[in-house]
Amino acid sequence: MCRMLAYIGKPKRSTDLLLKFQQLSLFGNSLDGKGHQDGWGIGYYPPPSRPSHDSYPSPDSDPSRPHLFKRAECAFNSSIYMDIIHRIEAVSPHVVLVHLRKASPHTQITIHETHPFLHETLLFCHNGTIFSSDGQPLGPPLDSIQLFEKIQKYPLEEAVPIFWNYQYTSLCCILTDGHTIWGYRDFMRDEKYYTLYYHVSDSCVILCSEPLFQGDWKLLENRELITVSHDFKIHSRILSSESPASRVP
Questions:
Q1: Which of 87, 111, 138, 245 has the fewest CB atoms nearer than 10 Å to its CB?
Q2: Do the Cβ atoms of 144 and 169 come closer than 8 Å?
């Protein structure tokens, strides 16, 4: 139960965009009206043509690896969140992924459970809860981490159908490798909450759990997967239970 934001390209004012998203930690659409205050994370890929000037440097100097910053606290009151979004304005990365967490019941609120998650050059975040056979959230490890582990082994369109055999609220997620963004919407209930929209302009494509400003936001259908390339081309498909991908073990 979270809010997700990703963009590829150059928004006119990335700081304004990230500040509007920050407000969703308190005022965003939520099932209980209490916002998304259980952690935040920002990942971005520094441009290879310029050195990084981060105040919070990545331990890995490989320019293909994203810089990732996470805290198990509310983004609205976080001075570090503010530091990072101003750094993003200065660095001007091509791809950014941000997540505001609302923890599922009976799950921990620590940095380990805070999204996005990183594996090599991949960043991933999820909105929803996947349940085990006893009706509790899947884990350990965290359900979102288990979903990401499958995506590390299989393409996203083959990994998510594995979880169609589980009970879940949503498999909505965003994945990026720094060159492409994949956005997927999949819900079993609460259709008006588990949403994922995208907005296209001349300079960028934005994906978000809910619209951040007025404009032509397009809502993904249930089980719709979109692929956004570095040149803003968008490919869309609906995943089907009849697809061989759904039978991957």
A1: 111
A2: no
